[in-house]
From TrEMBL:
Catalysed transformations (reactions): N-acetyl-L-glutamate + ATP = N-acetyl-L-glutamyl 5-phosphate + ADP
Protein name as it appears in the record: Acetylglutamate kinase
Principal place of residence: cytoplasm
SUPFAM superfamilies on file: Carbamate kinase-like
GO CC annotations on file: cytoplasm
Species this protein is from: Coprococcus hominis (ex Liu et al. 2022)
Enzyme Commission no: 2.7.2.8
Biological role stated in the UniProt entry: Catalyzes the ATP-dependent phosphorylation of N-acetyl-L-glutamate.
Gene3D superfamilies, per database record: Acetylglutamate kinase-like
Claim: Metal-binding is one of the keywords in the record: no
One annotated GO biological process: L-arginine biosynthetic process via ornithine
Binding site for substrate: 71-72, 93, 187
């Protein structure tokens, strides 16, 4: 035994893990990374705390994380509490005036709880929505020509507020709410918001924390996980009809982001403890990576 309950081998193995992280720390130092933290991966407070600890480590080794969060499940819970049935069209919440109010309230609560956790681990964080500093300008989104209420499509991202926060060493935590040219509030799909932010910042990496291990050829067969693919392969599996549910708009969004300046995208299981560290700092990585070119 060396210290506490560890054997010498265990201590050496821990050191090796740290050494393994070195090239990745070097590669990503000073780089902007956008993390989309989906509501379906916020299972409980402990898990949220793990994610925040990972973000803390990323920040402390010199990366520049920007968080865009969701909260879809929590919004649905509160919509049900007032006796309404949550309704989605093409993965987008049908948002009437009342639902808009609930969405904004719930997303603000999620936002501030993430900020509090960040402060708890010693990080400087500021929670904002797309309304702050004119971050997101939107227009009404009309999927298939249908009016589904206050659902916004981002038409402009003004990164000034993010740049100012990052310059002052704060981690921006962003809720997916935007404002139209007419100053009306809109609900934005959080994946769309994350892609728009990552694209505007020309992020080195965009990471989605979701509720599945990655993209599967067949989601019912765990051996079919795709650990790496390029944009063409991603388009190919979409065309073949392999991808459905919420993964389809997510993947389409990833492709658009990569075609517009984001270098790489990762889709990870946010329910896995320390998933961000495993992805960023280990050779094998986890989840599905969509790459333009190999890392080394
Ligand atoms: N081929 C596929 N690979 C992975 N997930 C898939 C696939 N086809 C459909 N899905 C579904 O997509 C879901 C993830 O998208 P979504 O529910 O929108 O996540 P989030 O709420 O984190 O944004 C998975 O839980 C899964 O049910
Ligand atoms: C228009 C629209 O659908 N907005 C989403 C915003 C939250 C979100 O996207 O949260 P997740 O990432 O947890 O799903 C909603 O109201 O659910």
């Amino acid at each position: 035994m060396v210290k506490g309950d560890y054997t010498v081998d265990q201590v050496i193995s821990k050191a090796q893990t740290l050494i393994e992280a070195l090239p990745y720390i070097k590669k990503f130092q000073g780089k902007t990374i956008v993390v989309k933290y989906g509501g379906s991966a916020m299972l409980d407070e402990n898990l949220k705390y793990n994610v925040i600890e990972d973000v803390a480590l990323l920040k402390l080794v010199g990366l520049k994380p920007v968080i865009v969060h969701g909260g879809g499940k929590e919004i649905s819970k509160w919509v049900e509490k007032i006796g309404k049935e949550p309704e989605f069209i093409n993965g987008l919440r049908v948002t009437d005036g009342e639902t808009m109010e609930i969405a904004e309230m719930v997303l603000s609560k999620v936002n501030k709880s993430l900020v509090s956790m960040m402060q708890k681990v010693g990080l400087k964080a500021v929670g904002i929505s797309g309304k702050d500093g004119g971050l997101f300008t939107v227009k009404k989104r009309l999927p298939g020509g249908k009016d589904i209420g206050y659902v916004g499509e981002i038409t402009k991202v003004d990164t000034e507020v993010i740049d100012a926060l990052v310059d002052q060493d704060f981690i921006p935590v962003i809720a997916p709410i935007g404002v139209s040219e007419e100053y009306e509030d809109y609900n934005i799909n959080a994946d769309d918001a994350a892609c728009a932010v990552a694209t505007a910042l020309k992020a080195e990496k965009l990471v989605f924390l979701t509720d599945i291990e990655g993209v599967f050829i067949d989601p019912t067969d765990k051996s079919t996980l795709i650990s790496e693919m390029d944009i063409h392969e991603a388009k190919d599996i979409i065309e073949k009809g392999v991808v459905g549910g919420g993964m389809l708009p997510k993947l389409n969004n990833c492709i658009t982001a990569m075609e517009n300046g984001v270098s790489r995208v990762h889709i990870l299981d946010g329910r896995l403890k320390h998933c961000l560290l495993l992805e960023f700092f280990t050779q094998k990585g986890i989840g599905t990576a969509i790459l333009k070119e190999p890392l080394f």
